[in-house]
């Protein structure tokens, strides 16, 4: 169940109303408008692990990952690079335990939400009486006006809707249908999160954020390569190839051990043939590469192509997944004294 300003949110329609109708009503709610404007008016925090003094004990979440953090151990948790994706924050009002995910398609929402709530309950002694603050940030009005003349019916529908609307609708529907109490604090998505660039292309206003776990404050943020750790390239590969691994079908990727404040990058398999596809991508120009690899090529950050090329180059050099996940075991990273990460041998 969704609450807005402490009041259960309902529409004039039946209880069987679809997520899309609930979403449309929520986007018009004055409290939602106010919170979106507040977030967009907050200066963006540029996060770097090289920053001195250190930014704090940080956990970074990549696309299709989630991490649940204890405020006693972690000060900051965040994500970025969300164009058509949506960042979901769920924070227990009882304990402050905070779970952050980077949702990228509707098919992962139901299981992903269950994973997040389960991980909070595992660390919350009062989970039976729990209620949660919720933030949804990311996704924009990305439905293009044109489509290829030879596009299929399903492709034309996707082109017309874009990627963000179905994802946002599914998220709201899942929250609405849940037995849990979700107090909606931020809904900065779709038209509330859309601007035009200098060429007239739609793009998101906020594509990343940082949560202060002690205060539940949230701000727009962008992260440099040094702060997107640990194990950036391997985690990017898991995002791209996990759909081929039945262990991760319809699920968010396990990443972080809440109790021990360490990363456990769970194994993901891939076929050695991926190196040939990766090699073909590396032959493309940057503009062709961008169009091939992104759902929102005109909205990506300047470092998108570089990051993707580094990922595909890793697959060329490491075609056998077992050399990455030795013994089919997770890659484990412990927190260092300065707040960074060190790989366990």
Key structural traits:
345 residues, single chain, alpha+beta, five-stranded mixed beta sheet, 28% helix
SSE inventory with pairings:
Layout: E1 2-4, E2 7-8, H1 19-27, H2 30-41, E3 45-47, E4 58-60, E5 66-69, E6 76-79, E7 86-92, E8 98-103, H3 109-121, E9 131-137, H4 153-161, H5 164-177, E10 181-188, E11 194-196, E12 202-204, E13 209-212, E14 217-223, H6 232-241, E15 256-257, E16 262-265, H7 274-282, H8 286-293, H9 304-317, E17 331-335, E18 341-343
Parallel strand pairs: 1-10, 3-14, 4-6, 9-10
Antiparallel strand pairs: 1-2, 5-8, 6-13, 7-8, 7-9, 11-12, 13-14, 15-16, 16-17, 17-18
Helix pairs in contact: 1-5, 6-9, 7-9
GO molecular function, one term: protein-N-terminal asparagine amidohydrolase activity
InterPro entries: NTAN1
Protein name: Protein N-terminal asparagine amidohydrolase
Number of strands: 18
As a percent range, the share of strand residues is 15-25%
Strand order of the largest sheet: 2-1-10-9-7-8-5
Content-based structural category? alpha+beta
Number of helices: 9
The mean pLDDT is 90
Helix-strand pattern, N to C? EEHHEEEEEEHEHHEEEEEHEEHHHEE
- Ends: how far apart? 45 Å
Question: Main beta sheet, described?
Answer: 7 strands, mixed
Rg on CA atoms, Å: 20 Å
- Helical content band: 25-40%
Q: Which parts are unreliable, with pLDDT below 50 for 5 consecutive residues or more?
A: 145-156
Which term fits the overall shape? globular
């Amino acid at each position: 169940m969704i609450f807005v300003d402490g009041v259960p949110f309902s529409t004039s329609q039946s209880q069987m109303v679809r997520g899309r109708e609930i979403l449309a009503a929520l986007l018009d709610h004055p409290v939602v408008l106010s919170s979106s404007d507040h977030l967009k008016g907050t200066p963006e925090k540029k996060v770097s692990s090289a920053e001195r003094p250190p930014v704090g004990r940080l956990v970074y979440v990549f696309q299709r990952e989630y991490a649940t953090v204890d405020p006693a151990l972690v000060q900051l948790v965040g994500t970025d690079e969300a164009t058509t994706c949506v960042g979901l924050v769920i924070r227990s009002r009882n304990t402050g335990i905070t779970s952050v995910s980077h949702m990228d398609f509707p098919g992962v929402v139901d299981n992903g939400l269950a994973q997040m709530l389960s991980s909070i309950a595992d660390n919350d002694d009062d989970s039976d009486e729990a209620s949660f603050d919720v933030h949804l940030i990311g996704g924009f009005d990305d439905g293009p006006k044109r489509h290829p003349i030879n596009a299929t019916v399903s492709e034309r529908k996707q082109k017309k809707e874009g990627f963000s609307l179905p994802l946002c609708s599914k998220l709201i529907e899942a929250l609405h249908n849940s037995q849990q109490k979700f107090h909606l604090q931020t809904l900065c998505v779709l038209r509330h999160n859309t601007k035009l660039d200098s060429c007239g292309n739609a793009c998101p206003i906020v594509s990343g954020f940082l949560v202060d776990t002690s205060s539940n404050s949230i701000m727009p943020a962008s992260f440099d390569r040094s702060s997107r750790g640990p194990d950036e390239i391997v985690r990017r590969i898991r995002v791209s190839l996990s759909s081929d691994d039945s262990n991760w079908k319809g699920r968010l990727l396990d990443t972080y051990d809440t109790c021990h404040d360490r990363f456990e990058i769970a194994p993901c398999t891939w076929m050695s043939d991926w190196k040939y596809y990766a090699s073909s991508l590396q032959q493309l120009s940057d503009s062709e590469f961008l169009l091939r690899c992104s759902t929102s090529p005109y909205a990506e950050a300047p470092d998108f192509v570089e990051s993707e090329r580094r990922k595909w180059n890793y697959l060329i050099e490491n075609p056998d997944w077992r050399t990455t996940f030795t013994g089919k075991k997770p890659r484990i990273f412990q927190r260092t004294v300065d707040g960074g990460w060190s790989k366990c041998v």
